[in-house]
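As the next step, I selected for study one protein, both as residues and as discrete backbone shape codes, as given directly below:
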Amino acid sequence: MSAFTSPAWLLLALWVWPLLLAPLAARWRWTWLPALGALPALGAAMVLPANSRLELPWLMLGTELGLDTAGRVVLLFSAVLWLLASVFVAGLMRTGLSQQGPDNLGQRRFNAFFLLAMSGQLWAVVGLDVISFYVGFAIMGLASYALVVADGSVAALRAGRLYLAMTMLGEVALFAGLVSVSAQSATLTPTPELLAQVSDLSLALVLVGLGVKAAIVPLHLWLPLTYPAAPVAATAVLSSAMIKVALLGWLRWLPLGAVTWPGWSLALVIIGLTTALYALPIGLMQRDPKVVLAYSSISKMGFLLLLTGLMLGQPELVGVGVTAMVFYAAHHALTKAGLFLGLGLYEQKTLPGGQRARRWLLVGLGFLALTLAGAPLTSGALAKYLTKPLLQDAPWSWLNPLLWLMTLATVALMARFFWLIVRTADARALAQHERPETAFSALEAQTLSVRPRVIPPLIGWSLLVGLIAALPWVFGPASAWLSNTANTVVALAACAAVLLLARRGFNPLSKLVGRLPPGDLLPLVLRGARGLSTAANWLWQGWQDARDALARWLVGGGLAQLALDTASGAWVETRLRAWSVAGALWLAFGILLLFLLLAGGL
């Protein structure tokens, strides 16, 4: 059956369709084009059976598209989130970006790059060969730069520069690693058995390239600056759909299930655990709820890398481990997108329904925060329950106590996030109370006219919260519903005690708030880079001064210039340009090449 007469053609259409819509979005003022771009992906995820394949030998060096177990789940929640984020683009972002240039230039430009990023992410999800995966990965990463700098603020441009630099670093490393993997395995679709035979350097390059996208410490510097700078719709997909491409890369390009790799297993466990534990206290020091969520994402991706390391050391648990990791990724993606989108709605000056809608948003955000913390009766508890087979068989006794500490810190981080939102709500209520009733600005009148546009995003977000609430009841056994109860209760009790002491005037932890800015290690890295640049310039200038002084000391008069030319290489270059010298060198190289050919033939 031809590829275009079978349902498998959806594997091609799901990323080609948004790619074709991108130039139309740049030209036309159709704010709903991004939503149309996500529809084929949603249809493919719901219609295509497991292990669907589509081979296109005419595309690039031979393209293979398909849906493996992990890819199908990632495609499903990615399509849902791209569609929902597109609704937010059409509803909430129209008034802000349309003011950047004439004829809605800012909105059209954002829509075009939004569709390009969507196409790249979906292509990477269904790309089973190294070229398809990398090309989709690169398109997604580069197009996302335009989403980060969309509003043109100083903070957005600064975050965009750092994001672009880190993205280029990751893509170069990933390209080198995947090319090396493909060359050593002699195929564009290496199996785990073939991946087990590639060099450690190749795997290290792949891990570095994917580690930038996953924001693994110390490659995480871009993420805490990017999330608060980007528009809410862009942040929602950056923190959910796009970051999970790194997880797919780990599952596809590491030799999981083929052999036991104790060295790599321990290394990934330590790096993942360090990332998970490092991000949590840094997040507690932040004042911006979006930055708090950014450090939460870093911690969660570190935990997923830890699980990947455990599977490298326990190949017999790969089947159970992949299922656990994929559900954990889906839970985190849906919940994190819900938090960012809900926060974007909550920050609107006016909402349909007034304070009633705002209270509903506050309740929904509180529920999502508890879900991300792994509270009982939520998808977070089910996600932790599914990871138990991997964790309980871990060969290191020190791992479980540290994971317990990570669980408590995660609850504290979500409590910090909710506390920051409540304080914002209190400040808004106080400002409205102190303002005279007659004060009614022109901006507020304009905002009231935008209320109907907020209704679709509000409905979409409410449906997402309902979907997240239903996950444990649909997919989880009854034994998983109350898991993680003790840890959640202990952590919430500790947070309540800290809050009570703070209200009584004893709050030593307040001195830590704001001590580390978003990006934590970034100032140190920048100072180190400036120091290295200064040292390099000093050494180069010292070498030039020493060379000139030596030349003047050795010779004098007319020979000084000859010495300087020789030291700088100019004299050598002049001699080599002479026909007699060049001809002799060419003849010597020719004789050497002929000798090597004759020796090879013998």
Notes: Residues 433-449, 597-602 have pLDDT under 50 and may be disordered. The CA atoms of residues 195 and 253 lie 7 Å apart.
